[in-house]
Amino acid sequence: MRTASFFDFLPVEIMHLIFSYFQSHEILLSFSNTSNHVDSVLRSYASYKINFKSISKSHFDLVCRRIQPSQIITLILSDADDTPGQSALFLTHFRLEQFSQLQSLRLINIEFDSLTSILLNLHHLQRLHSFTYDSKTIKIHSPNRIHNYSDWINQLNSSLSKAIVRLMPQLNRLSLSNFTILPTMSLTRLRHLKMGITTIDEFRTILSEIPYLHSLSISLHDEASHSEHLLLSSHMKLKHLTLKIENSQVSMDQVEQLLLKLIHLTHLELYATGHNDLANGNRWQIVSNSLTVLNFKFKILETLTKEILKSFCTSFWLVEKRWYVAYEEDYLFTVPHFAPVDVNFFQLQQHVPWTTFDKRMLYKQATKISAMLSSDDILGSLLDSLFRRFYDPNILLRIIATKIDMCQIQQMTLLSLTDIEYLKLYFPRMSDLQKLSIAEEINIDLVEQMRDYRMKQIRTLECCLSTENTSYIIEILLRLFPHVKHLYVSSISSKMDMIRLIDGFHDLSNASFKTHSKFGNIEQRWYFEPELLMYGSRRLAKSTYTCRLNSLLDEQSSITIQIWIEAQ
Predict the structure, then answer these.
(1) Residue that wins the pLDDT comparison between 274 and 428
(2) Is the CB of residue 234 less than 8 Å from the CB of residue 260?
(3) Residue range of the domain that includes 83
(4) What is the tens place of the pLDDT at every residue in 38-65?
(5) 449 CB contacts (<8 Å, ≥6 apart)?
(6) Range of lowest pLDDT (113-117, 180-184, 544-548)
(7) Would residue 298 count as lying in a domain?
(8) Which end of the chain has fewer CB atoms within 10 angstroms, the N or the C?
(9) Residue 368 belongs to what H/E stretch?
(10) Could you tell me if residue 395 is inside a domain?
(11) 293-300 and 342-344 beta bridge pairing
């Protein structure tokens, strides 16, 4: 018999309030079996907010076993790279109509078959008032469907539009990646809308069809010659506006005329490209006086002088509103909202930003750091190598450490595995560093230099393996990074190498492998029975897992193999 717990003396309402600060699996792991009373409260709790994005498979399985659909009010499903096949597995546990209390549903990169099933049954969710379809592509893991991709897109858009039409009378919050999915009907109940890329005309249609909209987030994509139509856009009820304008240059005159019409606006976030008239703090003060929140990021086409920031240094900006502005590499932006999160070792040394505040505050939010001039092309790698010849990395690192608190760095990108040598004195200070990306191919010479190192804090590893001496390289990597949970290999040539990585990283939760070689001639049956591809893995023989094989639309000779594994 279990003893009484401190929680037994708390009112149920207080316990429910405590639960609201935890994720669903944390509630189960932290409070289950505490006492009979607490277990009873857990069984009756009907406000679970389930977020399956990037969740471990063990925690996913726990939630599916222990929580009833009628207890869930918020649900996020994801078939992203770190949780492949999640939606299909979820639908083997539950039917959508069981979620009688569901109020909010978000779908992230959901596979075509699962998405089709979900859309057909959305109308059963009578209490649903918030729906988000968040996807840049459609995951189709059948090779036969790749060649008819446009047909599948059209079919999906049609299904999605029909589903939204049925839901519209009950929705007040909607987020979609495509305007064409939005039904052409009066959307009087909708209060919050987030859209992907739209044209100016579509933007005006949205404003006319949704008269009581309170918040709008949208990306305008139109020819510069049409940008004057922005002046005609108005929405008297709008309070929150996030507006990204692409393919057009915006003037301060246009911004002023737009804001003067939005008399109820309190929050503005604006991304745009334009001339130096956008960098006039005095003009901004006039049109933004009634705003509670103002954030902008402008690419300024002319080179600004430091004097331009004086207009953002008045008492209005620094004392009354506490809005701070910085200028760096052609961009004028507000801080902390647009403060750099991803910084570069070399560019940080070369560029000196101008700010209306203490410069040391600019990088307070930086969590990602790169030691490469460019990670996108061969020229970048060549420049990077030349740069290293003339700059002592140790001196450079000491300079960087005066600008950024190395303790806050969570992700790092290096050109070569041997760059770890330069950073070894700083790793003890990087207590939050968990993700490491290596751009260059890892070969036997590189791992030989690193064989005596151990980087126990790394949980996520991104790398590319040489096709020569791969087995030996893998064994060194297993010792160098003993606690990797998330693995992304951009080039692998052998099934056995893949299985060795899965078996060798004992903490592995998910992995993604891309193959270009003959190994890429995947048998068609493996798409439908991917466990055949994993045959021979000792780890997977004792664990449950999901596996997906995806052909890339723009590179059909490549195959991406993704796996989501139960913890050992």
Answers:
(1) 274
(2) no
(3) 46-175
(4) 999 999 999 999 999 999 999 999 999 9
(5) 417, 418, 421
(6) 180-184
(7) yes
(8) N
(9) strand 368-370
(10) no
(11) unpaired
257 with 159, same domain: the answer is no
Note the pTM of the prediction, 2 decimals. 0.89
Distances (CA, A) of 430 to 364, 367, 368, 369: 15, 11, 12, 11
Report CA torsion sign: 425, 426, 427, 428.
Answer: positive
The two three-digit tokens of residue 10, written as one number: 């708390």
Same domain membership, residue 192 and residue 112 = no
Distance CA 567, CA 58 (A): 6
Report the pLDDT averaged over residues 203-207: 76
DSSP assignment of 173-214: EEE-SBGGGS-SS--TT--EEEEEEE-HHHHHHHHHH-TT--
Residue 322 amino acid letter: R
- Give yes or no: residues 166 and 225 share one domain: no
Q: Output b/e per residue, 88-110; b: 16+ Cβ within 10 A.
A: bbbbeeeebeebebbbbbbbbbb
pLDDT of the residue at 529: 78
Retrieve residue 220's tokens: 């305008």
Rounded CA-CA distance 246/243 in Å is 10
Radius of gyration, alpha carbons of the chain? 26
- 410-425 pLDDT, tens per residue? 999 988 888 887 777 7
Report how far residue 298's alpha carbon sits from residue 332's, in angstroms, rounded to the nearest whole number: 5
Determine what percent of the chain is predicted with pLDDT higher than 70.
84
Residue pair 371/349 in contact by the 8 Å Cβ criterion = no
